[in-house]
Amino acid sequence: MSGLTKQTPIPTGVVVHSKSRVLELQYANEQTYRVPFELLRVYSPSAEVQGHGPGQETLQTGKREVSIIAVEPVGHYALQLNFSDGHNTGIYSWDILHDLAVRQDELWQDYLAKLEAAGVDRDMPMASAKASGGHCH
Prior knowledge:
Largest sheet: 3 strands, antiparallel
Number of helices: 4
Structural class: alpha+beta
Radius of gyration: 15 Å
Strand order of the largest sheet: 1-2-3
Order of helices and strands: EEEHHEEEHH
Distance between the termini: 17 Å
């Protein structure tokens, strides 16, 4: 997990917009970002998504309709997002959230390119780790 510094932007407000499926992050400098739930889910900082090292990432699919069902603070440095698909292991530190917010256009393009390279559709359901011979954490 990334660390916090004095320069880390900390949201002054966090609003879950269930209908439009976006997490609104409000900052003291009057910047506001609306980050889609799907983007937050496919770039979850969890080991389940990111793996335990470079090249171990698991490409996420079938997350277009995912919702955030709960947001829990983690100390004074992060949020834990609980998603409707049962995923709740990613700890979103303030710097990770800000990075996802400001780089979302770039991250979307990267995600779509990875889907194309893998020959999978964005809406294809995820294969079960047990069915594919993988392992669970």
